[in-house]
Every structure is written in C-alpha cells, then in structure tokens.
Amino acid sequence: MSKITKTFGKMQSVLLLTALLPTAPVDAALWYVDSSATGANDGTSWANAWTGVSLISGVNDGDTVYISGGPSGSSQTYPTTDKWGPAGGSAGSPITYQIGQDSAHNGTAIFSGNSGSGGWIDANLSYVVISGDAGDGKMHFAVTNYGWPGDGNNDVDVRFSYINFGQLGGNFKFNPGTGIEFDHNYAFVNDPSASDFMYMNGSIQAWDSIKIHDNTIFLPRLDGTINSSGGNGADCLDGSGDGVSFYNNHIEGYTTNYTGNEHQDGWQPLGGYYCKAYGNTFVNIANYAIFGDAYYSDFQHFWVYNNVVVLSDPALRNTQGISIGPDGGAYVQLGRWPNIVDVVIANNVVDSVEGGSAISLWNPDGLTASVFTNCLVANNILVDSGDPQLDPAVVTADNVPLTSAQAVNNFRSYTYNSANNNYHLVAGARSLIGTGANESAYFGTDKDGVGRPASGAWDIGPYQYAYKVIAAGFFHALAVKPDGTVRAWGTNADGQVGDGTLTQRSTPVTVSGLTGIKMVAAGYYHSLALAQNGTAWAWGYNSTQQLGGPYYTYGSAYQASPVQVSQSTVPLTNITYLAAGQGSSYAVLSNGTVWTWGDNSYGELGHGYSGSPIPAPMQVSGLTGVSQVAAGAAYVLALTTNGAVYAWGNNVYGQLGDGTTTQRNSPVLITGLSNIVDITAGQYCSYALDSSGQVWVWGISTAGQLGLVTTNTVYAPEANGSLEGGIVGIAAGWNFCQALLNDGTLLAWGANGAGQLGDGTTTTRLSPVPVGFGDGSQAVGIAAGATFGLSIQADGTLRSWGANNHGQLGRTTSGSYSTTPGTITGF
To answer: Which of 9, 78, 651, 762 sits in a 20 to 30 Å window from 576, CA-based?
Structure first.
C-alpha cells in the first residue's frame, strides 16, 4: 500500500544547493576600494576610496568592502606582490569583500602579482567572504600572475565565490578547514609541475561543513599514453574529507608538457565522514574521477551519486571511474584497517572508461567482512566505447563480501552508436538504448521523461535507489531514518508499531532493535523491514503466520518487536524487495524469484491452491525475472525486469486484470501491458505506470478510485487519459490513489471521506486533483494507507493527511482527520 519514488538513494537526505551571501548586521558599515580614486584615501566613499587592498584598515564585524572593477565592461588592476591577508569578522558576522554593485564599478577587478610570486591570499582566514558576484552570475574578480591561489591553516567560515583564477599553478590549501565554501569559480592550472589544485582537510564530521560547487576547473596531464600506474596529472581536490560536499562542478583534464609525478584524479579523499559528491561532470580525467582512498581515516557516510564521467580522448588508457576502498598502507597510519561504512555509489553515468573498473568497491588485501558495512553500488549506467582491444567497463566489488556490500540494478551497454546520443533506459530492463556520448547534447530522456544535460544530475526515474523508505498500512505507518533505524506510529493493538508494547502511538517511536534498514513495507496489521544485508524482519499481527517463521503461538498471535523472517529456523536471505498484504507477505530475491507466506484463503500466495496459511517462505513456481511486487486485499501484482506484469489471488472485482472475475491461484500474465516500470495495489483496484509516464488502471471504481470519471468496474487494463506523461510514481490506498509528477506535484483521486486526497475537502474525486501542500514544496516520495497519505518533501520533511482516528498521521490534528498535509516532527 505504499511506494517511494524519484529520490536519491539513501533518499532520506535531500539537498539544498543554494548558497547565499550573508546578511550584514543593521549597523554594519560600507567601505570602498578604487585604484582610480583621488580623494582622502580613507575608504569611506567611492570618491575617498582606498586605492589598494593593502590599505584596508579599521573594518569591523559584518562590514562590507566594495572593490571597484571600473565601469561595466572594463577592468581595474590591483597589484599585490605580497599575499593579501584580508581581515575577518566573527561567527554570523563575516566581513565581505565584494565587487562594486553599480555600473560605474562592476567591471572586473584584477588582482595581479609578479610572475613567479607567491600566493594571492594568505588563507589563514576566519569569517571572510570574497565574492566577485555583481548580481549577474558572472565572475568580476580575476586573479593572475600568482604561483598559487592561497595557502593557510585553520581556516574557518571562508567563502570564495565568482572568481576567475585564470592560469595558475600550485594549490589552494585549507588545512584544516571548517565552514569553507568555494563556488562559481574558474581555474586553468598550467604549472607543469603542479600537484593538486586544492588540498582540503575537513575537521567537522557533519554534512555540508565544506561546500565546493558550481566550479569549472581544468587540470594538466601528461601527453600521450598513460602509464600502467594509472597516469600522471594534477588532482582537483585532495586531502581528508570530513563534511565535504562536492557538487555541480565541471572537472576536465587536458594534455600539456606535464612533468609531475602525481596521478590525476578529480577528487581523491584520503578518508572522510559525512561526504557527498553529486551532479559533477568529469571529462578526460587520466586516472580516477573519484578515488576514495581510505588512508588517514575511515570512510563513513560517503555518498557518490548523479555524477557523469566521460572519456573522449583516445590517448587515455587504464582509466578508472569511481572507486572507494581502504588503502593498503592505512594500517601504518591508523594502527588498524579502515572501516568502510555506509558508502553509496548510485545513479552515476560512466562512459568509455577503459582498462579498469568503471565503478568499484575495492579491498586490496582481502580484509575481513567487518571492514565493509552497509555499502551499496546501485543503479549506475555504464557505457563502453566498443573498442574490442580494451577491457569493458565493469562494476566490481573486489574481495568485498556481498553480505556487507550489495551491488544491484547497475545498467550496462555493450554497443556504441554515435548517431544516437541518448542514454534512455528500456522500461524495466537492465540495458540501454543508444550509448553515444556528446557533451554538447542532452543524454535524451530518463524514465521520468525529463531531458538531462550531460553537465547536470542524472536521474533514472522510479527505480533510482528503488527502496521504499516510507510505508503506510491500514492504521499505522513506518519510515526509515538516514541512520538505518526505523520509526513507526499509529494503531498498535497487534504490535505493528514494533516498540515492544501494544500502546497506540500518535507520534513516531523507534522500532526496537532494527539497524541497517533500507526499505519498509506495511500490511493491514503487520510490518516488514529489509536490511542492507538482504535479510528481512517482521512484527505485528500473526494470526495467519504472515511474519514468516516459527513465531505463531495459539492465543498470542502477534509479535510486538521484530523477528527475523525465516524458513523454519533458517533466515531468508538475498532479498531485494518486500511487500505486505492483508494477511500475507512477499519477498523478491536477487535471482528474480518470488517467495510468499501467510494467508492463502484466496490463493494469494501463488502456489496453485488456496486454503490454510503457509508459515514459512515458499517460492512461487514458474515466476522469474521479477523486480517488484505489490499486494492488495488477498491479491498480488508482480513486475518483471522486461516490463511485464503478472497477477494472482482474489479477483472478485477484476483486480487481476485478466478480463474475468475468476480467482487465480497461480500467476497469470496481464495482457495489454508493456514497458511497465511501477505497480501499486489498493483494496480491489490496481495500477501500473509505463515508461512514457502513462498510468493504466483496472478493478473496482465505486469511489472513482480508477480516475476514469466513472464508477464502473474495469476488468482489463485501461489507460487513464488524465494521467499520461510526467508521472514518476504511484501509490494506492484502500479506495484512492496518488500519482507523483516529475516536478514534485502530487495528484490524488477517489474516496475522500477522511480527507485522504489532501485537497482541503472531503469530496470524492472521480479525476485527479492536486494535493495541497500550501507552501509550494515538492514531493519526492509517496505512500498511501487505508484512508491516509504520506509524502517525503524535497526539504526532507514528512507530511501526512487524511484519517487520524488511530494516530496514523503521526501528528496532532484538531479532529479525527485532516484534509490538508501537515508536517510530522522529528524527521
């Protein structure tokens, strides 16, 4: 009864990319620098401006110093033969050095040194903003004739923004740095002996402590064939990476008379906590685009997603894409082997990597399984050049046990077609149509129908990071937290909340004993959770043995805390997907088979007969290649990797879609459907989404839950004309349904007596209406309970609406229901 779609992999963490200049205090002063000024040279006005940055004095916390670039379209030069050490402010009140904002002063301010001189900035800075932004998104500060940009230690809350560093050598050092932001800058590193452009050691283990984004950096590398060690060239970013967010950058290698001895990487973190790399484009990088080499510290909570790696230079050989693992020499530094925890490599496009792994988790010495915990390589798109003399691009997990590092749904192409510059997934398939890469063109459309430029984030649609992190049951709900624990709320009469009690919970509480969880599913009165290691856990009502295993006790048919799903006493493993029905449970394994257990009154377990419950998981015969299942009231839908849908179980209202009302005890193929990418099941109504964004519906429609503007029952799939194009996910409740659009809009239709459509009314809707979030926020994930709805918003909050008579909204409402979405606190 729930579905999560269109979110990034861990998906619990949603990213705000906007970085704003700080607002000055009310009593902050304005100062002025203009090399052409002829007045008092005291900085108090443009007429009396200081004539050089070295003359700036007496500036206080929160002040702004405007530096003239001459009239718009011209430039003005400021010679600074020694390092400039701009004064800093205080926490919350930095001193801002900014280009003049009026047309008489918003030309280009050039900071010029002597050829071969030292750095431009003495980067031992605190609470400083240096910005060449004149409000037009262009770089109005330029730095030239310096050996390196800056050098310093213990930098705190410093921002460099909209600066053209031109051609320079050496590196920018922040060692350590906290609160650093480096954005919208350009650099062309031309020193033939350069090592790295930027060396950064973060010291705060928290997300977004350091932000490096929206930059364009060109790096030198050796001409000709790259050597067997992986290549020579300067890195863009090196150092330990605590708290680094590296996003929306364009990093490109170019050939030169390079003489250095460093291999060339886009980003080489030597360990790090709470780091993200996303939305970057790496072009012709000689060694690795991202080379996570745990040397000085562990990698914990390190996410790499939605990046594009392209190699178009035929001289490049033995190149790599994205690789993360422990360094073989780390034991000497740490006195132990590094821990690799919560490393995610997801939704990346890697094109034409040759001679090495496109994406890899690696373990140089075959270390013990405990080194890798909750790691995932998923939903990446790999493209080979088609050169038969070179090794194909591959995804590897070298010496990494799959019990601790899962690799799933990585798409692979073998054919190069330069005439079709289109990375477009076949619906439900694990291959690509067209594999040509053209940096100047779009990659085509992804599964949600949105064109994506090569330089931007790539989204492969409903299957991206295809695990449900929210779920809604009959009167209860579940949510996975970013740390892998689970929260639950609502009715708890049968222990379905999982906190060890039978007490109803109107706000979220922690489910007992669960860690490392990546997906949840909610049945009518029971709950399921899928762990990163492929095992499943169950709790709640167990009268029909839907918890799976030796847990049924007559007279006490529930479990108030999670128990492991088992075949007798042997745990069921290698699970990739879960679904929970009325009184039955379902699992998809990594080999594409389906396993079922629990109630079988209507043949809903798919074993060819109906009758007594089945207490332990049992494989459905003759059904393979399955990627997803959805469970309604005693019936089931199953989606295969080739986009077909099967159904079985109760069929009294035609919900199986086979044109009859005949109960089916074994799977039957639903005809008339193709290229399906998502499915959902209500009480007696069914829905399928195809790759074009069209929704197909069938089953009962007494409350208009099929959205066809009628209440007639439909016995075979029918296209809903109101839901075609732009749909990325669907979720069905008891007698209503929701559809998520690629712009974050959420539509709903059907029964609305408890306000479950979220449109501010209790009026039944025979066709889709928008859910009223009110604040204009976008939904990125959805779930539907019996008579209530849930969503994850782009700001990371959870919203709920509809019936609340059992606390299922997870928040306080003025009555027994809410007709508009409200925020659930604690997420």
So the answer is: 651
